[in-house]
Amino acid sequence: MKGLLYSGGVESAHLLQTVDGDIQPVYVAYGFPWEEREREAAREHVSRVGNAEPLMVINVEHDDASRLRRDADTSEKDYTYVHGRSPSLLTNAVVELSAIGVTDIYEGTLASGEDTFPDSSRGFYDSIESALSIGLDADIDVHTPLYGMSKPEVIAELVRLDGSVGFEDTVSCVVPGDEACGDCYKCEERREAREKAERYL
């Protein structure tokens, strides 16, 4: 059995359908308003994939989750990120997964992460893999098979895969609602990446 941090987005949908063997997908929730839609999509995606167990949801309780939210306004675009997201995602997921004997963990970070967030570099993953192995007395392996790829490349592979969870099924909007808003930075990034993916198809 292999663990997969699953958000319902492009990268995790790609891994859900390409990682070999039985998979235990995990969604770690913090209480942000966009998470309900993500979880619903994630549960639906997982139900379509024969080698995937039902979605495991871990609720990390904060009295005020907004402390972790960072909304930045740069000269180029607005964006939102969660402070310490990767350390928290991995630690919470790996503790639960290792308790059921799952020590191979997959995560869909891309090459762009190293340039944007310090907790998305491969060096970070190597370090936390070592720390968790010591702390849990287990041989933890954190796999990042998409590292070094761009989002358009991953989208193109997802389209070519033509699997049970396609590009149109994935979600990435940070504005809560039943449908993607189409205007937030995530929707813009998704739209631009899909257009650029055409060069790889």
TrEMBL record:
InterPro entries: QueC (IPR018317), Rossmann-like_a/b/a_fold (IPR014729)
A GO MF label: metal ion binding
Enzyme category, top tier: ligase
Enzymatic reactions: 7-carboxy-7-carbaguanine + NH4(+) + 2 ATP = 7-cyano-7-carbaguanine + 2 AMP + 2 diphosphate + 2 H(+)
Coiled-coil ranges from the UniProt annotation: none
Keywords linked to the UniProt accession: ATP-binding, Ligase, Metal-binding, Nucleotide-binding, Zinc
Pfam family, one: QueC
Pathway assigned to this chain's UniProt record: Purine metabolism; 7-cyano-7-deazaguanine biosynthesis
Signal peptide, first to last residue: none
Assigned EC number: 6.3.4.20
Family: Belongs to the QueC family.
Function summary: Catalyzes the ATP-dependent conversion of 7-carboxy-7-deazaguanine (CDG) to 7-cyano-7-deazaguanine (preQ(0)).
UniProt protein name: 7-cyano-7-deazaguanine synthase
Protein's organism: Halorutilus salinus
